Amino acid sequence: MSDATIIDSVTGVTLIQEQISTVIIDSVIGKVFIEKETPTIVISGGNQGPQGIQGIPGPSGSSPLISRTNSDSADISKGTPVYAWSATEVRRARTDTEDTALVIGLVSEDLLLSGAAGYFQLDGRFAATISEWEVVTGMVGGLVEGQDYFLDPVYVGKLTTTPPESIGYLTYIGYALSATELYLDIDSPIRL
Questions:
Q1: Candidate ranges 45-54, 56-65, 123-132; pick with highest mean pLDDT
Q2: Is 151 domain-assigned?
Q3: Which segments of 44-180 are extended strands (E)?
């Protein structure tokens, strides 16, 4: 004889707690049998029950967004990389120091005015029009599919396909899925 506890796996309620000598598992019937006369417990599997009611829909599959205020002296275009100036403020990212090269996301607003609050996407698929990417990259035709993009070492708040090699910090931003979509996979800056 040994002590046994049988707990309902759905509710967590203890069903039985007593001494038993045998446990029999029947995978066809789907029931638990306990005979008091003989210390035997039969545990059996069964078929799946009917589907329950549908729950509340979850959030959309879009990437996480954060909200901050643009404390830069300039308005910021969609797709521009930004860094945290303070806990509530952002500015256009640049490669001159580790703090300013630590990109926290890309502006997801069409245009974020100086002093206004807006949203920034942290990772995942980021879509913008060809003309919006032309503003951020300085390249005609939008993004180049398959190319990696980095924080531009020459122009503040811009992206480039040419990684910096000798000055400041290298910050990988992501890679182009198409002319209009960048997969954000932002890395921490690396000192050159």
A1: 123-132
A2: yes
A3: 65-70, 76-77, 81-84, 89-92, 103-107, 111-112, 117-121, 124-127, 148-151, 159-160, 169-170, 172-176
